[in-house]
Amino acid sequence: MLRRRIWVTLFLVVALLSWVLVPVSAKKVKLTVWGRDLPDDDPAHAYIKALVEGFQAKNPDIELEYVALGDPGLTDKTKVVMASNTGLPDIFQSWGGSVMGGYADAGRLLDLTKELKDIPGSAAARQAMTWKGKIYGVAPFFAIAGIFANEDLFKAHGLEIPKTVAELEKVCDAFLAKGIQPIACGARDKWPVLALYMYLTNRYGGSEAFANAQARKARFDSEPFVKAALKYQEWAKRGYFGEKPLSEAYGDAQQLMATGKAAMHITGSWMCAQYSDPGFTDQSIGFYAFPILEGGKGKATDIMGQTDIGFAATRVARKKKDAVVRFMKYAMDPEPCSAEPGRICSVPGVKSPSRLNAMASAVFATAETVQFWWDQDLPPMVTGPLNDTMQNFFLPDADVKKALTQYEQLVEDNVGPVK
C-alpha cells in the first residue's frame, strides 16, 4: 500500500513538472489582427506580407491570426463590433483620428501610452494614434494628397507646374485647348472628390475653417465651404474633369494618367508605387504640393492627409499586452517597413523606394499642419452623406450652397448645432 502511494505521488510530481516545464510554443498566445490587405504577392501589399511573415518568424511563441477584410469591409466590420462591444479583435488596422477616438471614448481600446511612447517615429504619426493624451497604437505609414503631374505633357506643351490656383486654372485651360483632360478625378466612386475639396476649402478659409465646423463653432455651409464648392462646380463646367466626371471611376482616373490622357491627378501619395511602376505606365509623373490661393487664408504648408497604415489595440487584448506590444514594435521596424513600395514612411532609417515617394516625402516634410481626411475625422454617421453631397459639385445646375445647408442640418441632427 505504501509503495503504491509512493508511485502515485511520483506520478503526480512528474505530471506537475511536465506541465510547468512544457515549452512555451505549446502554449502559444493567439493574437487576432484585422487588416485591409491580403499578405500576398501584390506589390501594393508588400509591407503587410513582410509584416505578417516576419512577425511570425521572429515570434514563434505567438499564434498570429491575420484577417484581411478589404475596403470597405474592414471599416464596416470594425464599426459593427465596436458598436456591439462583441467579437472585437486584439488589434485592428486604423487610420487614427476622431473615429479611433470615438472607440477610445466608448472604452473599446487598450491604453498603450507607457509601452509605445518611446518607439521611434514621426511626431505626426504618434499624434495620429493619440487621443486625449493616450496612445492606442502605431502608424508606420502616412499618406498626403498632392498633385501627380505628367511631367512629359507639361514639358511638351511648355507649361510649368502651378504654384497658385490662378496658375492651375491657366494650365487647365491650356491642356483643354490641346484636347487633354486637365484633371483625372474618379468622381463615380465619390470619395476621390474629397482631397481637392479639402484643399480648396483650406485655401479659402485656412486650417480653422474645417476645425471650427468640426468643433461646432461654424457651419458646413459657411463661406469657405461654399466658395470651395462653387469653384469645384466652375471647374466641372469648364471641363477640367472631363466630359462625364460622374462616370469616371477611380481606376479610370489612374488609367487616364497612365496613358497620358490626363495631365494631373489630385489624390493621395499611396499612388506613388503605381505611378512609379514601368509596368503600369511609361509616363514620367511627379508629385507636387497643392497650390496656394492668392488672397486666401490657407498656406502651402497646410497639407491634407492621414495615416495610411496604422494599428490600434482593443480592450480584449489587455491580458496579452506583451504580445500586442511586440506586434506594434515590429510594425514600426525598418525591416518590414522597407518592403513598402509607395507610402510615406514615418519610421527613421527607411529609404524612399522611388523618386515619386521621395518627392511626396519632401512635401510631407514641409507640413506645418496635417488635416486628416474629413471622411475619417468626422463621426461615422455623417461621413457617407458628405461624400454624397460632393456629387452635386459636378452638376451644372445644382445649388451647391443648398446641398451644403442640407448637410449642415444632418450634422446638427447627429452631432449638434453650432454653439
Under CATH, the homologous superfamily of the largest domain reads Periplasmic binding protein-like II
* Measured distance between first and last alpha carbons: 86 Å
CATH-scheme architecture of the largest domain: 3-Layer(aba) Sandwich
- Uncertain regions spanning at least 5 consecutive residues: 7-25
The Cα radius of gyration reads 25 Å
Q: Which CATH class of the largest domain?
A: Alpha Beta
Structural class: alpha/beta
Q: What is the CATH topology classification name of the largest domain?
A: D-Maltodextrin-Binding Protein, domain 2
Largest sheet: 10 strands, mixed
Count of DSSP-assigned helices:
19
Percentage of residues in strands: 15-25%
Task: Please state the average pLDDT score.
Answer: 92
Helix content: 40-55%
Domain count: the total is 2
Number of strands: 12
Looking at the structure, what is the overall shape?
Answer: globular
